Amino acid sequence: MGTEYERILIPTDGSPEAEAAVAHAVELAARYDATLHALSVADVSHFHGLDADTSVIVEGFDEEARTAVDHVADAGAAAGVTVETAVEHGPASETILTFVDDHDVDLVVVGTRGRHGLEQFLLGSVADRLVRRAAVPVLTIPSAD
Question: Is 1 domain-assigned?
């Protein structure tokens, strides 16, 4: 018997890299009749403790995150896939890994920018952290760039 996926996660921030993975995630969810979870993480932690009203900035991050997951929901609906959306706050990779555990995700599909060498070493990537630390398979989809 082959692998079955019931819950697939696509983390998205609406970037071209994340968008490159949406079609793959939707196709896999349709193939396995799986629920597709679209998660966008707004890391607003660097605004905590500032002596200023940052609510407008945080609302902007939340709005962008909501737009990103709504796009996945629309793509899923067009393919007849059940999509559950979520917007959460926190460091991206840690928040995604927690979501994977909390929602019994079977597969993560994530877009990647394809950094190499020193740039990858210095900046790291969410996709890289997920591949190294997730307890489930992580399918990385390189952007077309």
Answer: no
